[in-house]
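Good day; I would like, with your permission, to put a structural problem before you. A protein sequence and the structure tokens that stand for its backbone fold form the material at issue. The record follows directly beneath this note:
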Amino acid sequence: MQTTLSRLVRFGLHIYGIWPYAPSTLLFRLYWIMMLSTAQVFQYGYVIVNIHMDDFSQFMDGVSSAMASSLLYIKLVLLWTNQRTFFDLLQMMSADWQDHITSRYNSRVMTKTANIAHRASRWIIGLQIGSVVTYSAGVLAANIDNPERVEPYKRELILKMALPFNISTNSIYLAVQGVQFYHLFFVGCGITIINSLLVTLSLNAPNAAAILVKSVLFYITMNLEAFIYCLSGEYLSAKSKMIGNAAYDSLWYDFPAKESRIILFVIIRSQKRLTITSAKIMDLCLERFTSVVKASASYLSLLLAMY
């Protein structure tokens, strides 16, 4: 079946059990049902247990990651239950390709459309993989730089979960982090595979390229202001953290006792980071910007899939 879908998207559709009537479809669907259901229990368990926690930004981080998995779950179920409709779409795309391939001009147009769809798919998937890797690296870096998180049970996890066991050793912590990275990676890939599918289907519509360009430019423009605020907040937080490090690295032990106590107060005060907040609800940082963009893209793709 020849369509404008790239090989990467078709491979992803097989992996997530979306490709209709494939021999391995049922097996993959059972796997994703078990994996996503288990993760959702732990994620929403964290949300329920920590609903009254003082650090609201951490709570919202747990909510956003849980909802991202929920959105993937919903979209997969919608595509699974409508596999007949999806199969008909694939048949129509294949027939449309065969009808236009006989003409040189139409063949050139179809090939150009397919190339645009393939590039868009690679960009979407690549950006999502990059965001997952940088987000996970940021969590690990925060654990390394924070002296209060020396013990494994005090370290931050990539995904906020209420696990049924204690993380008492480094080996357990590394195992949990590895499983969570694996889960987050494939959740992100699943979201982008579906988004790439929607982009490919949209490119088969009339004036699709112009509509796509206008939508992308509008989306980038609307998010640029939020990115600037988050970048400023990240810079301010990093600089405030550097104040404490600089005070600690100074020759405070050579100072008089009175001045040494002042240095101590500076270090204590610097532990409370200076941040830019959104109505004092959450800190504005690059990690928060990534979560917002990921969630908004998921909501948009869900609306497109439903309507």
Q: What stands out?
A: Residues 7-206+293-306 form one domain.
